[in-house]
Structures are given as C-alpha cells and as structure tokens.
Write a structure and sequence with these properties.
672 residues; alpha+beta; 6-stranded antiparallel β-sheet; 19 helices; globular
C-alpha cells in the first residue's frame, strides 16, 4: 500500500505585509484532515503557533514559517530519499504569493515585498526539493493568490512545474477569496469537501478533484456574493490526471484508466512506465489480478530482453494479446449499445458492422498536453477573464497531409444536463434538468471540415451503407465545415473513418455533446451568461431564424412559448448576421479546447429525439427509440438566434432530411 506524506503551511500575520484572516486556519484544517481522516503517514505543520516539527529525520526544526526555517526544512528533510516511487507527497500553502520575473513565489512571514527574489521561496525550488524525497507523485496545493489586505491577490500558476500535479486556488488572472461566514478560504473549504467525499462521487483521482473544484468553488463564491474564482490544475505528465490521490477512497472504476495506460505502455514497449503504472494499481489494490499479472509479465519481458532470440520466442503472450484478454467486458456491451442499439435502421445505413465489431485492434493512443487560452465574459458580454487551461489532445491521421484533432473529455460521475428554471428563453418542456454520468471520451476539436471530408472519402472510397457526395456544402472552403449533412450521411462517414483508422469513431451521444460543450460551466454558454459576435457566428439581428418569429424555419407549436424579438441574449449586445458559415477555429475554444460549440452549424448527435430529458439513459449513452427516425441536433447555427445556440438548447431533424442546406454539420467522438 502506498503511503501519503504532507507539508502544510499557513500564514496570517506577516512582518512586512498586511495580515490575512483564515490562511492559518485553512492550513490547520488541511493538516487535521490529512492526519485524522485520511490517515497520512506523516504531516509536517508549519505555522505561527504550531508545535516544533518532529525530529524523525535529525535535529529538531522550528515550525515558524520564516524564510530561514522554511529553507532549512526543505534542505535538511529532503537531503536524502526516504519515500518510495509509489508514495505521494503533498504540499499545501496558504498565504501571500507573488509573481516576479516569470516565476511564482511563496512569501514567508518575514518576506520583503520589495525584494521578493531574495526573501521569498520560488515554487520551482519547492518542487525540486520535494522530488528529492523519492516519491514520484508530488501534489502542490497553492492557495497563495492573496495580495495585501485580503485573500485577493493575482493568482499564481503560469510557472508550470514539470513532473508534478499543481492545483492553484484560482486562474492566473483571477483572485482568491475568503468567506467570513465559513471562516475559510473558498478554495480550501471546497478542497476539504471534495477530499472527504466517498463512494462513486469521490475525488480520489486528480481528474475527479479538478472537475469538482472547477464547479464547486465558483458556485460557492457566487452563493456568498464573491466574484468568480476558478481553480486551475496543471498536470505533467498528463497521465497523472488519472493518478490516485487517496487510495482508501478509490473504487475499481478509478483504477481502469491506470490499467489501460499500463497496457498502452506495454504495447509501446515502454516497460519502465508500464511497470510503474502497474505498481500504482497494486499499491491501491494489492489483490488485483490484472496488476499482478502485468508486473509478472513485465518482469518476464525484462528477463527475455536480456537473453537471446530463442529465449525471447518463449514469451507465452505478447503485450497486445494480453491487452485484448484483459480489456474490460463492459466495453463490448457499451459499443453494442452505441452501435446497433442506437442506429435505428442499421440494415439500410450499414453502420452497425463497424460499431459492433469490438474485436477491432485499436492502436495505442498517444496523447499530449496543450495549454490553451480560455475566454470568459460577464452578463454584458464584456471580457471578464482569459485563463490558461491544460487539455489532453491527440491527432488522428487520415492521410499523409490530413489529421483530425481530438480533445479528451474527462469522465464525470455526476453531470447536470438541461437548463435551470431561471435561464432566459429556455424551452422548459425540453430542457428540464437531469443528472447523468459521462465516461471518458474524445471529441473532435472542430466540426468536420470540407478538407477532412474529402480526405476520408479519398482514402476510403468504398461505401459501407450508402454513397457520399464529395462536396456536401453550400459555402465552399477547405476549412469551413460541411453543412448539408443528413444523420445517415454522418454515420456513414464515421463508419469509413473507423475502418480507415482502426478506431471506433461515431457521433457523440447527446449527453456527451452537452458535457463537451459546457466544459464544467453552468452558464447559458460556456463563455458565460451571454454571447457576442466576437465569440460565435449566429444571427444577432433579431428573430429566431434570420428574422422569423419561431424556433425554426417552420413554425412549431412546441416553441410558441418562446419569442425572440432581439438579436441579443440577456444583457449582452445586439450582434450581426454574417450570412454564412465561417472557417473552424474562427472563435475562442472552451475549457476542453473545442471550437464553435455555439453557432456556425448545427451538430448531429447519435440519439433518437425525446421531448423529455428524463427519458435519456443516466450513463451518458444515447436514447434509443427503434420506432423513430428523428435525431437530435445541438449547438445552433449562423442563422439562428443566440438563445438557440445555448449549451442546453435541443432540436431535432429526420435522419434523412436535407432541407436545411448550409446549416447542419457534425463533429465526431472517438471511443478510448
């Protein structure tokens, strides 16, 4: 079983800076949680009134967090290795922080604000010392976004620490706030809440904790009348997003991403990484048969690599064979549901074969980390913030000149679909909220462009279920989306792309689409409470559809409860009407790195249409109605009112209908 060690530092009273209210109390609460609730092996607590540090590593050290005491502690305690690679080392700091000459600094009690470089401690130095412990998992929890007078200084986080998990209390351009009613900082309060959650809702992994904090902290600040505060997480390498923070709270499902990464590492002959991943699984679940077999297999492979070719031929199973044997059974069931069960008229369309064929040997998926700017606006559409977010991406090659970029959307145990009752211009009949879970999935970062459409058809000209036109577009342009696409044409494209790439590629379910669109937000748009012409391509001149007074080209009684007299949404500005699609990536992405989720073209989903969200499966899979050929559309288009481009807005179309020339396209999902 892996061990957890921690360092907790909290400073209220500074020698040369104005005092804080609850930083020291935050550190005390975190220290007590680590010691008593999480049963950490050792917790070092440094604060003004903390007892002397235990002398388990040499002569006693002072716990008052001065520059000299902190530097000596980091030097003496971490002079030699004392932890195993599978152990976790946590570092929590609550106090003032500064950014100086492109470096983040933590300010000790006696820091001189006029001489930060010589009297403060850089986060980089802290990370370097902590790594000397021997633990491969270093977690930095930095609530140091506090300037003079309050916990409201400019955030840290631009100085990214390699080889560590860094969670900051707010984004680099935001502030961090204390809540007097709770006697805690907003970040620490929700951090304690998240770490204490058990069962399927736990925050046992980095990914789960990050998802929870990005939702809970802004929501708490809003509840207590504070400006937006969004914690930011940087993970390097990106695979650490799946790393288990609290083994005692982890469920079997939490181990699955680690197992899949271990198998992928084996398939790529990266035995050192694979072995470390299997040992992480073993540390959490010592009796796990897959982990034991993986370790045995790697040990055997290592011995064979040092022997001659004849001995190498004695390996009973190759890594790929083992990967197939150990693949979770529920994957096959899920693909069956997403394939034949959701395809409706599969025989006519011919899309069932590639989805049902779960024996497809998918090649190892190599992802990379990318940092992107994310734009947020206020209720008037004015720029509120541009934060930097880390996203996990990969490029799927189509041919030597073309590739589709995907973003990996983290799994989420509880995700709310639909719109709240007070959201303006909502269609209540279709948008009543439900909670669903969504599995990890990859979504193409843009809708399919005309260039990618042609590349796929050129590389796989043989039809699977139907013929496809090479030019399904009203607005020509290589980087513009295809936009005269029926649902059946989209699924035929997915079938060919799957055959071409040896991956399971399909349309996203409606739940996956909204999860990808929202990217952790709860506002009407992922940008915030309104939309502007600088953020999306929509009809901003009034009416629902280029001046019409109804929700679509043809009046529908279901939509009569909502009228669209203005081209603006909420308190946002009146927009413009561009009159056609724009090239993909013309507007800022959301927090998952996805472009044009609002407007430009409608997007097909895999589901059959259901008026009520309550009919949808709660596991994120598509709604299936075998008697229906009506499919779901999401996202709005260039010709539609911004209210019809909201994250929660739902529409539909017959799966063979092509009457919306120039308005309907799609993006694809890749099962991972």
């Amino acid at each position: 079983m892996s061990e957890n060690w921690a360092i907790c530092i909290g400073i209220n009273r500074y020698d040369n800076l104005r005092p804080l209210e609850y930083a020291q109390q935050d550190a005390q609460a975190i220290s007590e949680f680590f010691s008593h609730a999480a049963h950490f092996k050792q917790v070092y607590h440094l604060a003004e009134d903390a007892p002397p540090l235990t002398s388990d590593f040499g002569s006693p050290l002072q716990s008052r967090p001065t520059f000299g005491n902190l530097m000596r502690f980091l030097r003496v305690r971490f002079d030699e290795r004392f932890l195993r690679p599978s152990d976790n080392l946590w570092f929590f700091f609550a106090g003032h922080g500064r950014r100086e000459k492109d470096q983040d600094y933590l300010l000790p009690i006696d820091a001189d604000p006029g001489n930060v470089e010589e009297t403060a401690i850089s986060v980089r130095h802290v990370t370097e010392r902590l790594k000397r412990s021997g633990a491969s998992n270093v977690i930095l929890l930095l609530d140091a976004c506090r300037n003079e007078g309050a916990r409201s200084g400019e955030g840290l986080g631009l100085d990214r620490q390699q080889g560590a998990v860094t969670i900051c209390s707010c984004s680099p351009s935001e502030f961090s706030y204390e809540i007097a009613e709770l006697r805690h900082g907003a970040f620490t309060y929700e951090l304690l809440e998240g770490l204490g959650m058990e069962g399927q809702q736990n925050c046992a992994t980095v990914e789960k904790l990050d998802n929870y904090l990005k939702f809970a902290v802004p929501d708490l600040c809003r509840k207590y009348g504070k400006p937006r505060q969004t914690p930011s997480t940087f993970v390097e390498p990106l695979s650490k997003r799946h790393f288990i923070l609290l083994p005692a709270l982890a469920t079997p499902d939490d181990l699955e991403p680690l197992k899949l990464e271990a198998l992928e590492a084996e398939a790529n002959d990266n035995l050192a990484e694979a072995e470390q991943l299997w040992w992480r699984v073993n540390a959490v679940a010592p009796t796990d048969a897959q982990a034991r077999e993986g370790i045995r297999r790697i040990t055997l492979k290592g011995k064979l690599d040092r022997s001659d070719d004849d001995a190498r031929a004695a390996v009973p199973h190759s890594p790929l064979t083992q990967r197939e044997e150990l693949a979770p059974v529920n994957i096959s069931r899920r693909l069956l549901l997403y394939g034949a069960g959701a395809a409706g008229a599969v025989a006519a369309v011919g899309v069932g074969a590639f989805l049902i064929d779960t024996r497809m040997k998918q090649r190892p998926l190599l992802t990379r980390g990318e940092t992107i700017p994310v734009t947020t606006v206020d209720e008037k559409g004015e720029l509120l913030d541009t934060s930097w977010e880390s996203v996990e991406t990969f490029a799927q090659t189509v041919d030597k000149d073309n590739a589709i970029e995907f973003s990996v959307i983290p799994a989420l145990r509880s995700f709310t679909m639909g719109s709240p009752e007070d959201e303006m211009l909502r269609v209540s009949k279709f948008e009543r909220q439900i909670d669903v879970s969504v599995s990890r999935i990859a979504i193409s970062r843009t809708t399919i462009t005309q260039r990618i459409w042609r590349a796929v058809l050129d590389a796989h000209p043989q039809q699977i279920g139907m013929a496809l036109s090479p030019t399904p577009s009203s607005f020509p342009g290589d980087e513009r989306p295809v936009e005269t696409i029926t649902w059946r044409q989209a699924t035929e494209f997915c079938a060919r792309l799957s055959r071409l790439t040896d991956r399971v590629i399909r349309l996203p379910s409606e739940a996956e689409w909204e999860r990808a669109c929202r990217a952790g937000t709860i506002t009407a748009f992922h940008f915030g409470p309104t939309l502007t012409p600088e953020l999306a391509n929509y009809c901003g001149t009034g009416g629902a559809v280029c001046g019409s007074s109804f929700g679509r080209d043809v009046a529908r009684p279901d939509y009569a409860e909502v009228t669209y007299p203005q081209g603006s949404y909420a308190k946002g500005p009146t927009g413009t009407f561009y009159g056609s699609t724009k090239p993909v990536r013309s507007f800022p992405p959301n927090r998952f790195g996805l472009f044009e989720m609002h407007g430009n073209v409608w997007e097909h989903c895999l589901d059959n249409w259901s008026e009520a969200l309550t009919a949808l499966p709660r596991d994120g899979s598509p709604f299936v109605d075998r008697s229906s050929t009506v499919r779901v559309l999401r996202g709005g288009s260039f010709s539609h009112n911004p209210a019809l481009c909201r994250s929660a807005y739902r529409d539909w179309m017959e799966e063979t209908l092509t009457g919306w020339e120039g308005r309907v396209g799609f993006r694809v999902a890749c099962v991972i």
